[in-house]
Amino acid sequence: MKLKFTKMHGAGNDFVVIDAINQKIDFTPAQWKHLGDRRFGVGADQMLVVEKSTRPDCDFRYRIFNSDGGEVEQCGNGSRAFVKFVVEKGLTDRKSISVETMAGVIAPRLEDDGSITVDMGAPILEPEQVPFDTENLTGVKEGRDTLWPLTLELAGDKETVLVSVVSMGNPHAVQIVSDVDTAPVELTGPLIENHPRFPRRVNAGFMQLVNRQHIRLRVFERGVGETLACGTGTCAAVVAGIRRGLLDSPVKVDARGGQLSITWEGEGKPVWLTGPAVTVYEGEIEI
Ligand SMILES: N[C@@H](CCC[C@H](N)C(=O)O)C(=O)O
C-alpha cells in the first residue's frame, strides 16, 4: 500500500505521524521498524498513529511505536506533535484535546503562539509499578526519593550507579552526572536499558543540575538509542530532582535538540510539559 505520512519533530525527537482514521493501518513490528529505519525507510525515533478513540471522554487514540518496531505506552514530545497534526489536518476544530494512550489519558493544548502544553498525568513512583524489581536491594533515601543502586558490567569491571525510578506511563531510570557532555551515555545507556531489574526495559536519563530551576538532560531511549530530546524523560528527571530536594518547579530543561519546560506541584499532581512541535514535510511511501 501507499502510506501517507507527515514528518515532524519536537526539540529534535523526530516522528513519522500517520492518520489511521482515513487510512487503514495494520503493520507488523517489522514494518514499523522499516518505517523508522533512517537508511531503508523514512527514519524516525518514533512512529505516531492517530486513531479514533472508543472512550466517550477522549477525542483520539494515540499509539506509539519505537524505531525498533515495538509498541510503547507513552511519548511526551510526540503528544505535542499529535495535537499540532490533528489541528493542521482538520481532524478536530478544538485546540485542547483529550487523548487515550496505552498509559491513560493525556491532554495536549495548542496555544495561539504555536507552543504546546501537555498534561502528562501524575508520575508513578512505586518501584513495582514502574516496573523495577527491588528484591534484596537496599535503596538510599534522599529527600522524598529513594536512590537505587544498579550494578553495571563494563568490560569485566563492575560499576554501580544510583538511579531514581519513575514512570510517566513508560519506565525511566534517572541519574545525576556532573557534566552531560562527558557522561557515558552511549556506553552505559544500553546496559541500563537492558538491566535485568527492569522487566520491561527502561529509558536511561542523565541529568546535570545547572541551578534549582534549570537542568541539562540526555536520554538513552528504550528501543531507540540516544535521542535529541525525550519528553517523558524530561518529566521523569524533573520529578526525581524535585523529590530529591534539588529542584523547584518550574524547571527549564536543555536537551540536545531544544528546550522544554516542566511544571510539577508534587505527589499526586500532574506533570505539565511545554515545548515546540514542528512539521517538516509530507510524504508517501510504499509499504
Ligand atoms: N521520545 C519519547 C519517549 C518514547 C518512548 C520511549 N522510547 C519508551 O520506550 O518508553 C518522549 O518524548 O517521551
Automatic annotation (TrEMBL):
Alphabetized UniProt keyword annotations: Amino-acid biosynthesis, Cytoplasm, Isomerase, Lysine biosynthesis
Binding site for substrate: 13, 46, 66, 76-77, 170, 203, 221-222, 231-232
One Pfam family from the record: DAP_epimerase
Annotated site location: Could be important to modulate the pK values of the two catalytic cysteine residues: 172, 221
Root EC class: isomerase
Enzymatic reactions: (2S,6S)-2,6-diaminopimelate = meso-2,6-diaminopimelate
UniProt GO cellular component terms: cytosol
Localisation: Cytoplasm
GO molecular function terms noted in the UniProt entry: diaminopimelate epimerase activity
SUPFAM superfamilies: Diaminopimelate epimerase-like
Associated pathway: Amino-acid biosynthesis; L-lysine biosynthesis via DAP pathway; DL-2,6-diaminopimelate from LL-2,6-diaminopimelate: step 1/1
Primary localization: cytoplasm
Record-annotated active site: 75, 230
InterPro entries assigned: DAP_epimerase_AS, DAP_epimerase_DapF
Keyword Isomerase in record: yes
Subunit details: Homodimer.
Entry similarity comment: Belongs to the diaminopimelate epimerase family.
UniProt xrefs under NCBIfam families: DapF
Function: Catalyzes the stereoinversion of LL-2,6-diaminopimelate (L,L-DAP) to meso-diaminopimelate (meso-DAP), a precursor of L-lysine and an essential component of the bacterial peptidoglycan.
Identification of the protein by name: Diaminopimelate epimerase
Organism from which the protein derives: Pseudoduganella ginsengisoli
